[in-house]
Amino acid sequence: MIREIPAKELDTESFIKEKVEEIKSRVGDGQAINALSGGVDSSAVTLLGHRALGDQLKTVFVENGLMRANEAEQVVDFFRDLGVKVEVVAAQEEFFSALKGVTDPEEKREAITQTFYRQVFGRLVRESGAKHLLQGTILTDVDETVAGIKRQHNVFEQLGIDPQEAFGYHILEPLIQLRKDGVRKLGKALGLPQELFQRIPFPGPALAARVIGEVTPERIDTVRKATEVVERLLSDCGAFQYLAILHEDRVTGMRESRRDFGQQIEVRCWNSIDARTATPTPLPFAILEQMAEEIVYAVPGVVSVTYNITSKPPSTIEAV
Amino acid sequence: MIREIPAKELDTESFIKEKVEEIKSRVGDGQAINALSGGVDSSAVTLLGHRALGDQLKTVFVENGLMRANEAEQVVDFFRDLGVKVEVVAAQEEFFSALKGVTDPEEKREAITQTFYRQVFGRLVRESGAKHLLQGTILTDVDETVAGIKRQHNVFEQLGIDPQEAFGYHILEPLIQLRKDGVRKLGKALGLPQELFQRIPFPGPALAARVIGEVTPERIDTVRKATEVVERLLSDCGAFQYLAILHEDRVTGMRESRRDFGQQIEVRCWNSIDARTATPTPLPFAILEQMAEEIVYAVPGVVSVTYNITSKPPSTIEAV
After folding, report:
1. SS3 state of residue A301
2. Candidate from B252, B306, B314 with C-beta closest to A307
3. Which of A17, A267, B127, B151 is deepest in the core (most CB within 10 A)?
4. Which residue ranges in chain B fall short of pLDDT 70?
5. Mean pLDDT score, A75-101
6. Any CB–CB contact under 8 A between B308 and chain A?
């Protein structure tokens, strides 16, 4: 049974001190490794780990080709400013080849998870020689696994590391007593930049979750360009979340005064407290029209833009 | 060279008298037939023809299964009130079987045209014994054929009637000197009900043009139900045209608290003068939300509704 530390009871100073000691004593003079996604959990673990281990901790950012524009650079820059070196691992080809021909949303998710753990991160762990893995698991992840919402993950199995061999490996989960609000409080105390807390939710499968149908480099590039416009125009709108989705359906459009088929982008912008229910944000019509205009201008092949006007339920926040 | 009669020069009383005499003298004591779609051209021809020929003219309404809710009944009722009997010919199965498996928009159009002329109307003409066909061709149709926008139609060939045999047939096109505004003026003088002039534009392939992907009875029923909601809520909005489109893409939704895939309806509502350019109507957000709510309530399987926010160009009015 894990003892929860509620955010309001969290004394960040003594928590950091305690965890830094714990990590130090467990790793000793060994090597550790962790994967940074840029989310608040993995960012907090990265800072805690570097405080404890310095250069004994290798931090990698896996570039899966599915991230938003400049996402890897932004994360690397954030951490460079904090004195932490992050190694970007180019793995775009591995992810796109795993996603080739896959159209079912669940199978897409699975292909991304498998490629990350079994192929890319598994290889990095073995090659690094590190025997200690730092993970940003929080209490909510544990609850959801127990409740059957998330699958039970045996990390070593996921990494393709033989259970025999796995005896030599150790998992460290320094955030496991915290929930999201506690991690935010901790992150702030560790000096994480504001931008990381203010970021709107972004799904695990990244832009692959924003493409209906097959995920290809071209289709990710299309939805990435549309996402840039949407995030730029809506960054101050106060909504809970906003996103662009690339449809598979083709619709009629005009190119150089001729009828031709083109692609459609769907924009969603949600008002919500906790994502369990949500309503479409009543954006001014001028903003909607400007957004459509900029998207068809900036994104090759797109001739049509829609705005989602349904509530959740029966809709969901994401489409895939 | 056809002499145009501009609307403002059209003396409806003498035009009607002249055309009635002309039709009478050409048909004599023979039999004539015409197909009524409910549009203003075929409606005006039907009234002119019946004034000239009475029961010698057989008027048919081909129920292709692709019309909006109650459309056949409404047209039959309109004309019954005007003393004209319209025979509804049930041909749904022929159209749906021609459309089965067809997903390309041009092929869908072609399947509908071929089924109408070659199969259904061709058979009706032969079975009726009528040697005179009344058609609502207007001058704009002729212009567009000459300009290559519309295909050159040899009506007899379309009807599957052998050119040898066709010597016995006659085509009468009493509206050929008029354009749309002239036909409207004529229709009014002939006593056509206001509803027929106020109707928003509706495409030839009917609801088949409002379905992305395969046209099946179930999918037509889905878009028909959505169309009912959209036309009811927007009938007073003053827009040029409004429509509902059924997408082929599936999106995530919630059914009975569980994640499940559902269908998406896209609503378009256009401000336009002549359909050459158009902008999305800035409907109040409360109307958009109400429309989405009523659609997901009234249309089984639909979990998501969007509103198109793109201008034409690069969008087009219809999607298929």
Report:
1. coil
2. B306
3. A267
4. 145-167, 197-198
5. 96
6. yes
